[in-house]
């Protein structure tokens, strides 16, 4: 029995189930950690007999998380690949073992769904019926695309986050200069700046707060600063961390070092803006040729061409 444009009932169920699985995995990946903590506290206030009645979404999320944990510990994903995924998620602001597990489940689910959909499409339409190698390459290729698609999405999130972090660090350094000159240490100054920037730049505030928390836990302050540089993956942040580590190690006045760093960051930012402004005439050349010059030619040379055409017609009539 054929339904849904030539697909059988089994094929339609597979397609719909795969789509629901992708939707559930993406929703679980995008669900913030704060929402989980609030939900846990609210669930703790509910009596035991009223809990877990009709909650389908948490069950699906938990199943995806458990599947991701098992896949993360299997031979399919090596330790090196896990490190790359964790760094990528950290750069995008997605931290936690549960998010990592859901991320792996999302990659595997997308790969399986695209593989199944491509197989159904190939065998239903009869595409490459004579060459099974091309069919296999097409199916495996789409499965690989599905496996790498979450990496592309998280990479875009990480790029946007790095941009906000880069734009807000100069203001954070200025505030840290004020805090250190007022007598606060590096840890207390970063904590104060993180609280003050929570509204203006949440990305910088979150990273500074995370660094302060690591300073209070790790045995050396240098380890927390190195983690901050690794998460940001920005050359400017690495230079700031290097300067701060040297200032702590050799006893350089912290306010003076921060002031120099702030001036260098603003000068570097100004150079980047000047470089973008210098590229602007080159980027405007193609739109100028395609859209502005034809209109200009019509306005300037249009009346003259009409006069010439009228003169030719009059001469032809006289002859």
Features:
11 helices, flat, 319 residues, two-stranded antiparallel ribbon, mainly alpha, 2 domains
Describe the protein's topology:
Elements: E1 2-3, E2 7-8, H1 9-30, H2 33-45, H3 56-72, H4 79-91, H5 97-125, H6 132-181, H7 186-196, H8 202-217, H9 221-232, H10 235-250, H11 254-318
Antiparallel strand pairs: 1-2
Helix pairs in contact: 1-3, 1-5, 3-5, 4-6, 5-6, 6-7, 6-11, 7-8, 8-9, 9-10, 10-11
Structural class: mainly alpha
Helical amount among residues, as a percent range?
over 70%
What sort of overall outline do the alpha carbons produce when their principal axes are compared? flat
User: How can the largest sheet be summarized?
Assistant: 2 strands, antiparallel
- Helix segment count? 11
Question: Largest sheet, order of strands side by side?
Answer: 1-2
Please compute the radius of gyration using only Cα atoms: 30 Å
Distance from first to last alpha carbon:
79 Å
Let me know the number of strands: 2
Give the ordered list of helices and strands.
Answer: EEHHHHHHHHHHH
What fraction of the residues are assigned to beta strands by DSSP?
under 5%
**What number of structural domains do the residues give?**
2
> Could you report the average pLDDT, rounded to the nearest whole number?
77
> Spans with pLDDT under 50 lasting ≥5 residues?
1-5, 27-36, 46-56
